[in-house]
Amino acid sequence: MQDTIxxxxxxxxxxKKYIDKLEFIESPRYIFFGPKALDKTPLILKSLExxxxxxxxxxxxxxxxxxxxxxxxxxxxGWKYDIQKVATKMPKTKDIENLVEKGKxxxxxxxxxxxxxxxxxxxxxxxxxxxxxxxxxxxxxxHDGVASPCINFLLSRQIESTKGPEWAIAEAPFAIIAxxxxxxxxxxxxxxxxxxxxxxxITAVKDWxxxxxxxxxxxxxxxxSMAILSAKIVMDxxxxxxxxxxxxxxxxxxxxxxxxxxxxxxGSSRPASGSEHLFSHALDILAEEKGxxxxxxxxxxxxxxxxxxxxxxxxxxxxxxxxxxxxxPVTAEEAGLDREAVIEALTIAHKVRDRFTILGTIGLTETxxxxxxxxxGIISTI
Length: 382
Prior knowledge:
Layout: H1 8-18, E1 30-34, H2 41-47, E2 54-58, H3 61-76, E3 81-85, H4 93-106, E4 110-115, H5 117-130, E5 134-138, H6 153-162, E6 175-179, H7 180-183, H8 188-199, H9 201-214, H10 221-236, H11 246-266, H12 275-290, H13 297-312, H14 316-325, H15 332-335, H16 339-348, H17 366-375
Parallel strand pairs: 1-6, 2-3, 2-4, 4-5, 5-6
Helix pairs in contact: 4-5, 8-11, 8-13, 9-10, 9-13, 10-11, 12-13, 12-16, 13-14, 16-17
């Protein structure tokens, strides 16, 4: 991390160290969403009083085309910019270091991430390492990272292991430009993943409540309520969440932004990530280390939510019904996951990170994990 303090991300942990009861809320300052929102970027930049060079970070073929469309609009208004593409596979520390070097050469005033989750994660970290603000321009609505300071678990783990935990800290976007005309045409799986990620707040908040009671962990009723509201919004509209419809994109984007803001209010991912996310992270680890196939983050946490709701004594059948209504996979087979990977993930999930949940400190035995997955229909009974 830089020697001088250049951002709130660096300042807040230092202040927390000395003033334990101080709370910090770092959330998007402006949110612009609707059809053709991306085409209004020059106007938005002017309203934000941005005048210097823009560093645009984007990804694969489809998102690159969208970024080029943005560049055409910037050209029309005489803006200086530079476009950098990142790999669609999991980015590496070196990829971000290369972008930071590029940034040091062109001296951008602000960054814009145009793409899905991985592109936005890279943009967050590049901005943090440069000490700059960034704008989030999501091209899909698959998880609440579009509005939060959180980054992908595996990327965070990689950065922490190669450079240290302070290098994996990012800020929430300065502004969000969510073009629902673009998002509605994203792959259908992104809508399913976004819905699943939102529904997972039901078990995440319950885990947070448990940790506050058993571990005296700081709890924010306001952040928790906002997270639950985000889940309720999409569940109430489960039958309407379909790809190709602008109103569907609008519903999911609003809820994801609400969840992201809840994370900012809480000062951690607690209102949005609990035992169901630990299960998903465990699947990702197994895919990386043992070659098991994994799938979209939001779909994995949806399966985790069903099972963790059962452990928590919540109405997991209702959650399952709403997921089915929205077209989200509710079995390992539908999600393309190996049944043995599901069972193993359940047994190691409690060790993934230092976060107290319904899984406790001991976790599930293989027998208990198998029974849970079978009882909730995630895997079939042999």
